[in-house]
Amino acid sequence: MAVSHLLGLPRSAAMTMRELLPISVPGKTLEKCAAAEIIMLIMRRHQERAVNEHPLGKNFVSDDSSFSVTEYRFQNPSGCPRYTLC
């Protein structure tokens, strides 16, 4: 929030997987979820992020964008493997 305020840029946020958990898989903890349920939570989080970030355009502050690792890679000329945060 402070970075958003200091830079004068809008801030994007989305629910965490733990916040989505009671809505998506009631009665389970992340540790008790099957692999398919974890993937579903990841996809729901990505979807929420995409919906929240799209109207903000290219200039915004994100608390943890789903695509931050990919964006970092494409902007980073270090030669790190694709989708790797270096």
Question: Overview of this structure, please?
Answer:
It is a single chain. The protein has 86 residues and is mostly helical. Helices cover 48% and strands 5% of the residues. It is built from four helices and two strands. The chain has helices at residues 2-7, 17-24, 35-53, 68-75; strands at residues 11-12, 61-62. It has a two-stranded parallel ribbon with strand order 1-2. Helix 2 packs across helix 3 (35-53). It starts with a helix and ends in an 11-residue tail after the last helix.
Produce the secondary structure layout.
Elements: H1 2-7, E1 11-12, H2 17-24, H3 35-53, E2 61-62, H4 68-75
Please give the order of strands in the largest beta sheet.
1-2
* Helix coverage percent: 40-55%
N-to-C CA distance: 25 Å
| Low-pLDDT residue intervals, each spanning 5 or more residues | 68-74, 81-86
Proportion in β-strands: under 5%
The average pLDDT score comes to 75
Structural class by sheet pairing and helices: mainly alpha
Sequence of secondary-structure elements:
HEHHEH
Largest sheet: 2 strands, parallel
Give a quick set of tags describing it:
two-stranded parallel sheet; single chain; mainly alpha; 86 residues
Question: Could you write a compact summary of the structure shown?
Answer:
By secondary structure, the protein is mostly helical. 48% of the residues lie in helices and 5% in strands.
